[in-house]
Amino acid sequence: MPIITKISVQKKLKHRYNIFLKENENDKEYYGFSIDEDLLISYHLHKGQQLNQDQLTQIQEKDTSYKVYTQSLKYLSYRMRSKQELIKYLQSKEMEMSYIDEVITRLEREGLLDDLAFSEALVRTRMETSSKGPLLIKKELMDKGIAPNYIEQALSHFTYEKQLDKLHKLYEKKMNRTSKKSYKQQLDTAVQSLIQKGYTMEVIKEMLSQINTDKDMDEEKTALYHQGEKFLHKYKRKKTGFELEQAIKAALYRKGFDQELIQQFIEEYVKNDG
């Protein structure tokens, strides 16, 4: 049976030790394996100790599992992770799946890996620090391999009332009262932005029903005349008369302005300009 001839600490990893062996008293010493300090102590390894093959196999398997465990703890120390994130990380480190499964079970038992707690924490963080709506957060959780029932439980914290409150704030940021765009164009852009952020049309419509969506006609007129003058300058190079009026009307209508305001601009600027 192999005999431990020397135990030396590794130069770069002070918590790991190299174990040297030889088969018999007169044989040449050779490197056997390395082991973590905790396992070195728990197995009471010492110089002159004999180890049979079963012991060697057990120690090395235990050490491999311990490596996966400590690697996992290091990865989890930066922030909470989902089970799938941890598995992918360990696989990228070329860890064997049998050891990964063993460590995952241990971490879950110790409460260090919990997909529900992870999901709830992620939802709270996104609610407090981002503009993401529940649909985007749901996709993020799905991408991290969270089970549907956990996603549902976690998103229950993002209540309808909290969504409405966040939508009111996001809407106000999007609606620029001094914009040179029509109110309708601003509104359409704001709604599209909210949809892209992961809010449903149901909650967006409810938010819009709670606010004053009346136009400020002075600002609307200022925006229209700003746009109209640009179109007039653009089209009058190639068009005149009725064709010019129709081209400008169509352009302004596409920008979301009311026909009545558009006609006012045509009467005041286009016909007079002609």
TrEMBL record:
Keyword Plastid belongs to the record: no
Domain of life: Bacteria
Domain RecX second three-helical residue range list: 114-155
Residue stretches making up the RecX first three-helical domain: 69-107
Subcellular location: Cytoplasm
Family matches, as InterPro entries: RecX_HTH_1st, RecX_HTH_2nd, RecX_HTH_3rd, Regulatory_RecX, WH-like_DNA-bd_sf
Main subcellular localisation: cytoplasm
Stated family: Belongs to the RecX family.
Functional summary from the UniProt entry: Modulates RecA activity.
NCBIfam families: PRK14135.1 (NF010733)
The protein's name in its UniProt record: Regulatory protein RecX
Taxonomic classification: Bacteria, Bacillati, Bacillota, Bacilli, Bacillales
Encoding gene per record: recX
